Amino acid sequence: METYEKNYLKIKSDFPIKVLNSSATDEDLIINLDSRVVNLSFAGLEKFSVSRFQLTEVKNILIRHSLKENFKLGTIHFLRVIDLNSSLLNFSIDLNEFEIYISEKQFYVKVQIKKALNRP
Description:
Blueprint lengths: L1 E5 L2 E5 L4 E5 L3 E17 L10 E14 L6 E7 L7 E8 L3 E7 L4 E7 L5
Parallel strand pairs: 2-8, 4-9
Antiparallel strand pairs: 1-2, 3-4, 4-5, 5-6, 6-7, 8-9
């Protein structure tokens, strides 16, 4: 399992994490899933009687996070192709509150947004 930690972002992934674009203010990461089914779950989602969201034919996950101090929001995009205009789903999360886990399963990719442990 590969681990990426920078600023407030923490990812653990069975897939390679590559820097797509980096500047002084933010960084884009790309994770190639090769057009797999994604089962996406969030910490606390079960209290709404929802177990997961499922996306089909996800080619890439793009994660944009800020490199600025005290800027904790990040955006996650699930893409059909590498173009942002092909986004199937995107959302913002507080990266200080959550960690991202990406696991390869036999018939799908499991993406979990879990509560961060040991954060200030």
